[in-house]
Structure formats: C-alpha cells, structure tokens
Amino acid sequence: MTLFDAAQNADLQTLQHAVEYEGQNFRERDADGNTILHYAVQSGDLAKTAYLTDFLALDPLDANLSGVTPLDLALQNGAADIAAYLAERSDIDPAHSFHNPVRRGFYPDPSWIRVGEDYYMVNSSFSFFPCIPISKSRDLVHWTTVGYAITNPAWARVARSEGGRGYWAPDISYDPASKRYYITATYRGNEGDPERRCQMVVSADRPEGPYGEPAWIHEDGIDPSIFHDDDGRHYMLFNRSVRMAELTPDCRAMKAPARLIWGGDVKNKTEGPQLMKHGGYYYLFAAEGGTGSGHRISAARSKNVWGPYENCPYNPILRQDDAGGYLQNCGHGKLVQAADGRWFLCFLCLRRGPDGTAPMGRETSIAEVTWTPDGWPVAAYGRRPRAVLNLPLPEAIPTAAPAGLTDWKGGEWVTQRALDAANFAVENGVLTLRGNGLDLCEMQMQGLLLVRQQERAFTAETELDIPSAGTAGLTCYYDEHSYLKFGVGPDGLLLQEYAGYEVISAQTAPLPAGTSRVRLRVTAENGNRAFAVQDGNTWRTLWTIPEPRYLTSEGLKCGKRFTGAMVGLYVHGTAAVRFTDWAAAWPRPEGKR
Fold it and tell me: Which of 121, 481, 512, 553 is the most buried (most CB within 10 A)?
C-alpha cells in the first residue's frame, strides 16, 4: 500500500504503520503535485490529518500544481474541523489570506517602490506596447495598471522587435533630491542589430507618469537598476556578475566606465542586481543560477558602495528547492519596507503544470522578509517561496485603471509591437479595429489587441460584426511564431493554428443562417480548448482541440520565448471591424478568499 492509499483509504493505525515502519518518501507527490497531506484531507479524517501535520511536519500550505493547498481542499470540501485545525497549525486566517502569484499572467522581472502608503511596481514587456506596465497597490496583493514607461510609439523602438526582444527587466526608483521617479530597462535588439543590448532611462515627477523621452546608455549588459545614494550620487548596476557605473546628476548618462563590484555567491549567471542602504551597510541583491530550476536570490553587503562585498552566510535568501513545488524558478527580486516597518520581497516565478509547461510565463509573487540577529534579510518560512500568506496589509480596493482603450470592457489591452492609433477607436462602448492586410505571423501586422492569460482554465468571448472581407475574431497568441485564430468572415467561421513558420491546421464551418453579427467563445479546461458560436440562445461547439503546447515558452523552439500566453482580438484584412463586446473569466482553482 502506498502512502497515498494509506492516507486516503486506510485507518489511522495502518497509516501510522506505513509511515513509521515502511520508510517511504514523505515528500513524495502524485502527478498533480498533491502531497500525502492532501490525501488525508480528502479522506475527511481529522486524526490522520493531524498525525501527518504534527508528527511528519507536513505543511498545510504546500500547494499542488493547481495551487490548491491541503487547507484549501478542506475548505472546498466543507470539512470545517479539518480546515480550522490546519488554519491554526499554519497560523493562517483563511478570510484574510492570499495566494501567490499576486500579478498573474505574463508579469516577469518585478521591481517596486513605496510612495507613502502606495506601492508601485514595474514589469518587463518585451516587444509588447505600451512598454513597461506600471501598477499600483495599497496592500501589496491587489494591483492595477495605472501607466506605462513608454506610451509614444515614436520613442518605443519596438516596431522591428522580434518576439522576446524589446524591454527586459525594468527597475523603478525615486531620487529624493530631484523629487523624480526613474525607470530603467534593457533594450534588447534583434540578433542582427548593430547594438544588441543597451540601457534605457526615463523619468517623471509622478510614479505613474507620464514619463519623458528615453535616454539611451550604450553599455552592454542586462537587468539595470538605479541606486540613488544619500550623498546625492547616482549609480547604475547591471550584469556580467554585478557591475556598476556612476551616472550624471540627471541619470541620463554614465560619468565613467562600469566596473565589477561583486562576482555573486554561486558565481553562475549572476544578474538582476539591486542595491539598497540600510543600517550603515550597502546591501546588494542579485538573481543567480539562470532562469531555470537553479534560479535564486543571493545577497551581499559592504560599508563602501564600491565594495568589496561580503557574501550573506544564509544565501540563497530565497530559492525553490522542491522540484515538485507549486512556484518554480523563483528569483529576480527587490526589497521594500512597508509603512509599518516590515519588509517584503517581490520575485518572479513560474506555475508549471503536470505536462511541464507554464502557459502564463513568468509571474510576480511576494514573500515576507525577516532580518537575522546579525543583520541579514532572508525570506521568511525557511527561505522558500510560499503559496499562501496572510494579507500583509489591510486589504484595499484596487485603484481604478485609466479610462480609454487600456480599460475597454475591463481588459488591460496591449499589442505586439505598436498599434497605429488610426487603426482603432472606442466610441459609445464599441471598439473599431482595422487591419492592414497582414497576418499575425508578419512583423508589421496591425489589428491585434491582447490581454494576458491569467489561468490555465479560462473563457473568453467577443461579439463582432462580420467583416466584409478577410476574417476577424478571437486569438490565443504567444508571438508571431505561435498562435491560433478563431474568426469569422463573409465565407464562414475559421479555426486556424500556426506554429513555427507555417499553418499546422485549418478548419471551417458555415455561418448561422441570417446573421450579420456573431458571438464567439473559446473555453480552456481539462486539457482541451473548445470553440463555440452562439446560435440563437444556445452555444454550439464547433471544434475541440488538445491544449496547444505551442502557446507556451516550453512547447516550441523558435526565437526567444521569454513571455507568456495572451488572449484577445484580431483583424486579418483591411476591413474596419466593430467589436461590440468582450468578456474574459479566469477562475482560480484554489478559490478566491
């Protein structure tokens, strides 16, 4: 009998015997990431649940690959006694807790600052436009996009950017002397460009912007950040281990060449450096080990800004060391001190499913930080990422998003590269989107609006007028090398899949009789995607396909795949198409509390 069988189906005595005499792996997980404790909770037996929690020290907050913890499972099953016990043992208030990630979907490489009681975060946008989203929160958990670092297409330089290029690893900072906010990021060119990597800097007098025209610092490297010292000097840090250069007072140029200040702790792919001053020390943080399973955050400190830096004896200060854990590839973080004096860390992570793919790409999670008696910051709870935490601050209503296209029908809309303003308009709640005759695989294509996919399971719908030529409708999109289109044209309905450099499947169906407008729906659940059209008052499913692996970073080797899956609207052709509605739902398996 396996431990899973004993935990779910046997009595307590049999489970105890299996644990204490059969010497099995108590950290074992099933194919869906469930632990032995999940099985005990599923049995509804409080005594078995308590035995595994108390004497094997299994974690009630250890999530499976869907993000469901044993505590979540007890709540979902209505097992009030088990839920109360697990909540007490894990020091969690289910009514005032949250699940990581806090920025779900393609929000990689986070950096944040506190402004009074408000918090602002930036994330990478790669070749998507507007560039570098700026989000705001009052509680570190609920975030709303309130601006972008670059909103002028003429400044963006992404019109030629291949998927996976563009703006990498931004940082947001504040200079109290000039009372200005700065955002810097690496601009990553295409492989054949004369300069493949340089650093971009913009500034504003408000954290949400608007930001001015970018300055370009022609120094190779990635993942820049800006540190404003209390003596009025400014420094930029970037990788190749950790290098640093002093900047001019306006932070738009380097005063002297960059030089190495720290080789890192594990000395392997050290990047994403951040510098802060606290308690008389300069603390240096960096991501190490590459962006795969070895990803981590390491720390060092020095009394001198130029070093030498002493490695933290507790490194890594955050790392996922459980290959079956819910949050994987955790690293690239930055500390912030809350208004109440506590410290928190934002970091990137992946939610990888049983098939090994992570459709949402790299996302943003947070961790509470504690300071050791000898003055080192480490992530709480064993320096590991935690799936569930108590709300760090009183829950706040999310900030309202700016009016306009970015919030049409509740969507946070972006496009691949830049969308010509002449090709879209919103009037009286109706979006008109025009293509330029090019398809989604072509770099200069116009007529594409996207939102980030937030969960594996989702539903997206749109209602549109049937175009007079070409097709328009819904798209599930990763980049110009991988997408599908579920659209409609004068000749009928179309489902087309594109992967690599070619169409890999195409299916057609006739239109419902007597229609000039259609409502389309794509549903992802249980490992499949279904495509349906509304026919009168009912939905008619036309096609069902297996979940497309080509819509993930792991599922296709083609170009640089560092982003995440998107869902949205497209127009292929030159018609101006009216979209009268859009709706998307992202149900969370663990439930919202």
Answer: 121
- Single out the catalytic residue among 175, 271, 439, 547: 271
Mean pLDDT, the chain, whole residue set: 96
By three-state DSSP, how is residue 89 classified? helix
Which CATH number covers residue 423? 2.60.120.200
Q: Which helix (H) or strand (E) holds 143?
A: none
Domain span at 175: 99-387
Task: Among 65, 97, 129, identify where a domain stops.
Answer: 97
Distance CA 454, CA 363 (A): 9
Q: Which residue, among 291, 282, 388, has the nearest Cα to 335 in the 3D structure?
A: 282
Q: Which of 45, 59, 109, 547 is the catalytic position?
A: 109
| Average pLDDT for 433-443 | 97
Beta bridge partners of 216: 200
Looking at the structure, do residues 338 and 195 belong to the same domain, yes or no? yes
Pick the closest to residue 137 from 384, 355, 399, 393 (CA basis): 399
CA distances from residue 121 to 131, 207, 482 in whole angstroms, order as listed: 14, 9, 29
Q: Are 171 and 191 in contact (CB under 8 A)?
A: no
- What are 21-65's pLDDT values in tens digits? 997 899 999 999 999 999 999 999 999 999 999 999 999 999 999
Neighbours of 353 (CB within 10 A): 17
Number of H helices, E strands in the chain: 7, 37
CA atoms of 513 and 588, how far apart (whole Å): 37
**What is the per-residue burial (b if ≥16 Cβ within 10 Å, else e) of 252-272?**
bebeeebeebbebbbeebbbb
How do residues 150-199 score in pLDDT, each as one tens digit?
999 999 999 999 999 999 999 999 999 999 999 999 999 999 999 999 99
Is 162 designated active site? no
236 and 192, same domain (yes or no) = yes
Within a domain: residue 121?
yes
Quick check: is 271 catalytic?
Answer: yes
> Count of domains in the chain?
3
Euclidean distance between CA atoms 239 and 109, whole angstroms: 14
For residue 352, give every residue at least 6 positions away whose Cβ sits within 8 Å of its Cβ, in sequence order, or none: 65, 328, 358
- Structure tokens of 328? 């994987």
